[in-house]
Amino acid sequence: MKLELLGKVHEVAENSSVGDLLKNIDPENFKKYLAVRLEDGTLCDLFAPIEKSQKVEALTFQEEAGRKVFFHSASHLMAMAVKKLFPETKLAIGPAIENGFYYDFDREEAFTAEDLEKIEKEMKSLVGKSIRPIRFTLSRHEAIAQMKQAGEPYKVELIEDLPEDEPLSFYQMDDFLDLCVGPHLPNLSYIKAFKLTQLAGAYWRGSEKNKMLRRIYGTAYPTKEELAAHLDRIEDAKRRDHNKIGRELEYFTTVDYIGQGLPILLPKGAKVIQILERFVEDEEERRGYQLTKTPFMAKRDMYKISGHWDHYRDGMFIMGNADDEEAEVFALRPMTCPFQFQVYLNRTRSYRDLPMRLNETSKLFRNESSGEMHGLIRVRQFTISEGHLACTPEQVEGEFRGCVELAQYFLKLLGLDGDVSYRFSKWDENNKDKYIGNPQDWENSQNEMRRILDDIGIQYTEAEGEAAFYGPKLDIQIKNVHGKEDTMITVQIDFQLAERFGMVYTDKDGEKKFPIVLHRTSIGCYERTLALLLEKYAGALPTWLSPTQVRVMTITERSDAFAKEVEAALKQAGLRAECDLRNEKIGFKVREAQMEKIPYMLVIGDREAEERTVTVRNRKGDNVGTMPFEQAVALVKKANDEKVID
RNA sequence: GCUGAUGUAGCUCAGGCGGUAGAGCACUUCCUUGGUAAGGAAGAGGUCAUGGGUUCGAGUCCCAUCAUCAGCUCCA
To answer: What is d(CA A75, CA A60) in angstroms, rounded to the nearest whole number?
Structure first.
């Protein structure tokens, strides 16, 4: 039998393993190899016998697949420790995730921080035992019997849901047995460094209808240094958390008696959002959008037409008794669509009116469940650049493309274009109640959208069950510092609501037709976008977005008058400037401005005041130079006008 | 909504086993200093998240509520 490995073909005995081969050809690096990828892409243990000649790949911690094996074994190691310390615990599942692993357990009592320490200690002692995971397979029947005997109801449930004919693989690690497809490390002693990072609850099989299990998250590395570096990276990310720096730098705050998800935007946060809103409205006007201003609420009658009453009621704030059919009941708007449609409906429309592009800087209200709020990223009242485009079928592709281009234009300006991914969000065929319209319409609109996406040529992933209730979406996704992904921008194709609202146009042929409606945001929700910007720039927003762009500071009172003059010149140029005339040491003033992430500092002493110059420093602390003050004003003005990412 | 943690001055945190609140930084005033981070003096700041309960007495113990954080679920 021949195995091709590391670029060479080796003659080996029948059924020998890659591990055996590596021991011969690369003995000094042998311990680096964790598992094997076969020619057909399947993974197996390092010492699994290979059945036929083929090209194989030995996976190390450097490859994602190798890391996953490492994390997965670490997860089992943790489960072993838990079972040793708390034998009554029932096992659910324990997969590898992006930067570590978790295992879900069912146990009456919650684990405590002290328990985690105990578990880590037990894991250490297990690592010392040099346990070699042993794989074997059982028939479905035997497997169920085995797991029933072991008292593992979740495992039994898992097996019952697996295909009938598949033999089930198990791993024996010391006295610990687990149902598992593998592969696993050749030896648990490879797991030299690990840390249990957090405790959490998680629903069995991800459904809130099921029991909540106890989840323990952890991470593991081959060396202590790599683990320490990883933990440092996490700490670093947390320092960028908008929820921390946004409060520290006074962009926003919350008040317990106002309520969850209702942040107060402080002057700095409000300023950034104002800059963005004005900019977006102006840019959209240039691109043929018409601004609307529509009500924040409507009677229930409207939501019945739009479908919100039946499909989105839980997400709305309702005023009045919703159960009383006679009463006048209002609800705050969770979306702008039905309101903006009224603009279209204001008079008869012809194909000549299309495409009609409407935009609105819109306040929306959504009654999110209490545990879902997060800083400025997930709130109950937010402001979104929302727009609706009514167009003919021929215009859909061009208009859709225009929406995507506009979104990409804003992303690039914000410097976030490299941080997003695209998701094609489809409906869930098995959960039709969540949506309006018939399957054929959904099929058509999804195919149309996929065709356009492929035409535009953007890379995207597909996601079932993520569509809006009225149509499929292109979602532009972004991750926060904790690695949690959220939708930033969305463009949707809607073949349904026009008909519901009786929106028609007279076509060239004199026929009445329903327009296709695109729902879109261009920059997303301003609060969320601000949060992402704060995280992206660790609070040091690009000059054009900084609430304060320049601070003029003096060394002695003798230069105060000139400083005020410079400040006035900056303001005259349309820049956001302020003076720091306090009687403080200049080093202290500079440092304070740096901590506030102010982009430019203009320092003025006797010499500068006499020469009518300023010494310019940027927020990194670099001395940009001493120059006539007009030149300094022009310098900042340039950074502002060119919207440079600095 | 669920699981868990947390809540003391603007911020970061101390406050054994219940006896009416403390530090550093920040803030205010004055003095001093004056070119790259905090020199001196004085002062002001707290219904200890809120509401109940136990107790002669609660920041401390118990219960409930609210908020904040992480995760799950859900979503822009």
So the answer is: 18
Longest alpha-carbon distance in chain A? 93
Confidence at A434, pLDDT banded by 50, 70, 90: confident
Cβ pair A333, A339 in contact under 8 A: yes
Average pLDDT over every residue of A303-328: 91
> What's the number of CA atoms in the CB half-sphere (13 Å) around residue A40?
6
How does residue A599 score in pLDDT terms, banded at 50, 70 and 90? very high
Rounded distance between C-alpha atoms, residue A520 and residue A237, angstroms: 31
Q: Which of residues 5-64 of A touch strand B (CB under 7 A)?
A: none
Integer Cα distance of A104 and A95 in angstroms: 9
| Alpha helix segments (H runs only) across A346-416 | 396-414
A426, A446 in Cβ contact below 8 A? yes
What are the tokens at A207? 């459904």
Instruction: Choose among A388, A389, A390, A370: nearest CA to A380.
Output: A370
- Counting every residue written for chain A, the total comes to 646
**Which chain A residues in 489-548 sit with Cβ < 7 A of strand B?**
489-490, 524-525, 527-528
Q: What is the 3-state secondary structure (H, E, C) of A505-542?
A: EECCCCCEECCEEEEEEEEEEHHHHHHHHHHHCCCCCC
Give how far the C-alpha of residue A580 lies from the chain's centroid of Cα atoms, to the nearest Å.
39
A3: confidence class by pLDDT, cuts 50, 70, 90:
confident
Instruction: Quickly list DSSP for A137-192.
Output: EE-HHHHHHHHHHTT-HHHHHHHHHS-TTSPEEEEEETTEEEE------S-GGG--
Residue nearest to nucleotide B72 (CA to C1'): A202
Average pLDDT over residues A523-545: 94
pLDDT for the residue A10: 87
- Burial of residue A483, with CB atoms counted within 10 A of its CB: 0-12 exposed, 13-18 middle, 19 or more buried: exposed
C-alpha to C-alpha distance for A326 and A548, rounded to whole angstroms: 53
Residue pLDDT, tens place only, A211-241 = 999 999 999 999 999 998 898 888 888 888 9
Residues 244-283/A with CB within 7 Å of nucleic chain B are 248, 254, 256-257, 259-261
Contact assessment for residue A245 and residue A534, using Cβ atoms and an 8 Å cutoff: yes
Label the pairing between strands A134-138 and A168-173. Answer: antiparallel
Amino acid at A476: I
Q: What is the pLDDT of residue A407?
A: 96
Chain B footprint bases within 7 A of protein beta carbons: 1-5, 7, 11, 31-38, 49, 66-76
Nearest to A611, CA basis, from A549, A557, A566, A550: A566
Q: Are A283 and A387 in contact (CB under 8 A)?
A: no
Per-residue pLDDT tens over the stretch A437-457: 889 989 999 999 999 999 988
Output Rg (C-alpha) for chain A, integer angstroms.
31
CB A554 within 8 A of CB A581: yes
